């Protein structure tokens, strides 16, 4: 399943693994913020690839949910854990005006190929 929002794409690979692609304006501390969010949600980083130019950075992160630690690991799905973590990564890098304009998150269900739209606030709360 693929889930996307402003400047971020989450590709769930089955099991507890996923790939997260994030494109943000180049600034110090972004990788630290990403790893901190993943750590809070008990998501391990398998690999990271970073590409950048003068103005933007692109992070491609291979992750895996660590079922041995973290809250709600018996009840939350890998999809829910990854979506919550990614929704927290998206918000800090949106300009204030753009943040108010973006209401929906669009994702594609890989099984059906259908686009689905979810309210951004709902996506961040699930």
From TrEMBL:
<protein>
    <recommendedName>
        <fullName>Plant bHLH transcription factor ACT-like domain-containing protein</fullName>
    </recommendedName>
</protein>
<dbReference type="Pfam" id="PF22754">
    <property type="entry name" value="bHLH-TF_ACT-like_plant"/>
</dbReference>
<feature type="domain" description="Plant bHLH transcription factor ACT-like">
    <location>
        <begin position="17"/>
        <end position="73"/>
    </location>
</feature>
<keyword id="KW-0539">Nucleus</keyword>
<dbReference type="InterPro" id="IPR044278">
    <property type="entry name" value="BHLH95-like"/>
</dbReference>
<dbReference type="InterPro" id="IPR045865">
    <property type="entry name" value="ACT-like_dom_sf"/>
</dbReference>
<dbReference type="GO" id="GO:0003700">
    <property type="term" value="F:DNA-binding transcription factor activity"/>
</dbReference>
<dbReference type="InterPro" id="IPR054502">
    <property type="entry name" value="bHLH-TF_ACT-like_plant"/>
</dbReference>
<dbReference type="GO" id="GO:0009960">
    <property type="term" value="P:endosperm development"/>
</dbReference>
């Amino acid at each position: 399943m693929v889930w996307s929002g402003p400047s971020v794409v989450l590709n769930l690979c089955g099991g507890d693994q996923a790939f997260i692609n994030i494109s943000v304006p180049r600034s110090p501390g972004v990788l630290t913020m990403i790893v901190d969010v993943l750590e809070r949600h008990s998501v391990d980083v398998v690999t990271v690839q970073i590409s950048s130019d003068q103005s933007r950075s692109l992070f491609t992160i291979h992750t895996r949910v660590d079922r041995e630690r973290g809250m709600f690991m018996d009840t939350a799905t890998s999809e829910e854990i990854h979506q919550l973590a990614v929704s927290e990564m998206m918000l800090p890098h949106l300009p204030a005006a753009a943040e108010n304009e973006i209401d929906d998150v669009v994702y594609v269900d890989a099984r059906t190929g259908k686009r689905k739209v979810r309210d951004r606030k709902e996506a961040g709360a699930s």
